[in-house]
Specification:
The chain is globular, with a radius of gyration of 22 Å. It is of the alpha/beta class. The structure holds flavin-adenine dinucleotide and uridine-5'-diphosphate.
Length: 369
């Protein structure tokens, strides 16, 4: 064998694994089907603005080890994500907090907001939430559910809220303070010079082949290294033998505008069902870039078809059951390690991917010793 490890995918997971193994003298090769490294966190500099090519990426974590690790590759700015939602002709702060409650109901104190939410919840009479709709209503009541959650969620996932798992909405905080920070985490920010420089440092000096799909020459790649780290779709790896897993696709429409400031915020969500995009991001506001122009991206959720980029796993019971069968096969592999969002079919944020990759590296090192 020519290499110790073949790493399929140059996203955050694959790049951390390759970096750490190279550091201890293991010979690695990384293959990547896209024409650039970085996977979905890839940014490119245009008009002096780092453009998030695959949607807004805000780094956040409460895990000190993860934070210190990523800070070895970049400094972060002090960006705090505070998206604003537009529903019909009104704007609402997110996540759901005292500002939102004031805008929705005119409540001014936590006691007034609690009373309003309780009144709304009592009308709905939900004891044990079984799906996203029931979960959302039992957290914030039907008014907020109808205006800020239902339309956004149904276009985002292409499913009715009653068919979606409750955990998706639990990603968002509900607060009785006037705090518009979208995340509860201790650490948050955007890399000072984009995410691509982080990945470039991880892969510096390593052999990386772009425009190279594992499945186009599977036999060759399966015989090139002692072990394979696979961060692509696990169902594709196993030839869909237990059926296809479901993914959600996205389309991005990016425009450079001849003005300094288009919307005054990095992220504006459009929560009405009839508007086909979920959010518009204005990239310069992630980092206060100095530019006479601005670049904005509309994010359109889309049905995923084989061959499209798989952006989100759809972790409902049906898909999770199919995944369990693939996971069982994966657990018996001695030569293959599955990692990352697609390799483990998990809706993981960046911090969790770093955590998983570092754990995976530790396990691998124990085997080597
Ligand atoms: P990926 O980035 O998907 O990397 C996998 C790589 O493998 C890709 O480059 C792919 O091209 C390559 N590959 C796949 N199959 C093959 C093959 N057969 N042959 C060769 N190469 C292959 N996280 C946050 O923490 N904060 C955010 O604000 C945030 N926003 C997000 C917004 C969007 C729209 C999306 C989709 C995700 C967001 N995330 C966010 C999540 C974040 O993108 C992921 O946690 C992270 O990028 C996952 O890294 P990964 O290495 O697992 O996967
Ligand atoms: N969500 C919503 N309204 C919003 C923003 C989010 O209903 O204005 C819901 C939606 O179901 C979404 C989930 O909250 O899928 C999680 O949102 P998050 O911003 O974490 O999603 P991501 O950035 O991963 O797309």
């Amino acid at each position: 064998m020519k290499y110790d490890y073949l790493i399929v995918g140059s996203g955050l997971f694959g790049s951390i694994f390759a970096y750490e193994m190279n550091k201890i003298g293991k010979k690695c090769i990384v293959i990547e089907k896209r024409n650039h490294i970085g996977g979905n966190i890839y940014t490119s500099k245009e008009e002096n603005i780092n453009v998030h090519k695959y949607g807004a990426h805000i780094f956040h974590t409460s895990d000190k080890k993860v934070w210190e690790y990523i800070n070895e590759f970049t400094e972060f700015n002090n960006f705090i994500n505070s998206p604003v939602a537009i529903y019909e002709d009104k704007m609402y702060n997110l996540p759901f907090n005292m500002n939102t409650f004031y805008q929705m109901w005119g409540t001014k104190t936590p006691a007034e907001a609690i009373a309003k939410i309780e009144e709304q919840k009592a009308e709905a009479n939900i004891t044990e939430p079984k799906n996203l709709e029931e979960q959302a209503i039992s957290l914030v009541g039907p008014d907020i559910y109808t205006k800020l959650i239902k339309g956004y969620t149904e276009k985002q996932w292409g499913k009715d809220c009653t068919e979606l798992p409750a955990f998706i909405i639990k990603r968002l905080p509900v607060r009785l303070t006037f705090d518009n920070n979208y995340f509860n985490d201790r650490y948050q920010g955007i890399p000072l010079d984009g995410y691509t420089t982080v990945i470039e440092q991880m892969l510096d000096g390593l052999e990386v082949k772009l425009n190279t799909d594992f499945f186009e020459d599977r036999e060759k790649w399966e015989n090139i290294a002692d072990k394979i780290v696979f961060t692509g779709m696990i169902d594709q790896f196993y030839d869909y033998q237990f059926g296809r897993l479901e993914y959600r696709g996205l389309k991005f429409e990016t425009e450079t505008l001849d003005m300094e400031n288009y919307q005054g915020n990095a992220v504006i969500n459009y929560t009405e069902r009839k508007i086909p995009y979920t959010r518009i991001i204005e990239h310069k506001h992630f980092e206060g870039s100095d530019s006479p122009k601005t670049i904005v991206t509309k994010e359109y959720p889309a049905q995923w078809n084989p061959g499209d980029e798989a952006y989100y796993p759809v972790n409902n019971d049906e898909n999770n059951e199919i995944y369990t069968k693939y996971e069982e096969l994966a657990s018996q592999e001695e030569k293959i390690i599955f990692g990352g969002r697609l390799g483990t079919y998990k809706y993981y944020d960046m911090w969790k991917i770093i955590d998983e990759a570092l754990n995976c590296v530790e396990k691998e090192k124990e085997l080597i010793e």
